[in-house]
Amino acid sequence: MRICLRCRAAVGEAGWRCAACGYEPVQVAGFPAFAPELAGADEGYDSAYYAELYTLEAGNYWFRARNALLIWALRKYFPQARNFFEIGCGTGFVLAGIAAAAPRLALHASEVSSGGLPYAASRTPAAEFLQMDARAIPYREHFDVIGLFDVLEHIEDDAQVLAETRRALRPGGGVLITVPQHRFLWSGYDELAHHVRRYQARELMDKLAAAGFRKVMMTSFVSLLLPLMALSRLLRRARSGKIDALAELRVGSLVNRALESVLAFERALIKVGARFPAGGSLLLAAERIEP
User: Fold this and answer.
1) Of 116, 144, 152, 250, which is least packed with CB atoms within 10 Å of its CB?
2) Contacts of 161 (CB under 8 A, 6+ apart)
3) Are 116 and 91 in contact (CB under 8 A)?
4) Which helix (H) or strand (E) holds 201?
């Protein structure tokens, strides 16, 4: 059900006005805003990058490979899902991929920064969008699957986000999560992206267990490119000067195709059961468990 964040009463499906206390979220950039004070704060991501990111994602090897992996995981581990909620949708590239792959899935998405929502809505106009702080979700036992794709690392209180995510899931519902992995890869790129951490696998598993989830599957990905990624970060540390936050995404077409081919081979291994212990990122599927 949908709930009022002020008095916690149930809210009907037509609009967000609470019949119990009269609260109704304001509109920001044309979307219901449940944390309007954060809508333009760039707390977790610099909204100045949205326009270029929107143009880069569709052709970039990393975003394309991650989308393909996420769509596979959603189909494999949550085949009966009827609705899906993406927390922190950015410019909506993942959501658009899911919409194309699963047209019968009812789609919902949120973003704390209002700057990304118009881009996301242009990609998937049939989805429901709202501006929201992931630490206060206006749903209870509502969704079959929730996705947090490279979101948790931006939020200091990730435990609160996971607790809220569990409450927004129906009993038996599941979560798909991706996060950047390995502290030794920390660099100026993480700082520019407003990351507060890179995860270790055990750390993420422990936090999910504490929030009331059971692991279904976990693997590292961008694993076959890890040596190249580590070398790139080491070279970056050795150089001084200003860092371009999107530089790693701007690669030539030949290199882009080669890297995407490597990640396609890696994905094929994951599909047949390979689980990588190390990689640039972690993918985890988990289900809500009851007390």
Assistant:
1) 250
2) 87, 134, 135, 148, 151, 152, 155
3) yes
4) helix 201-211
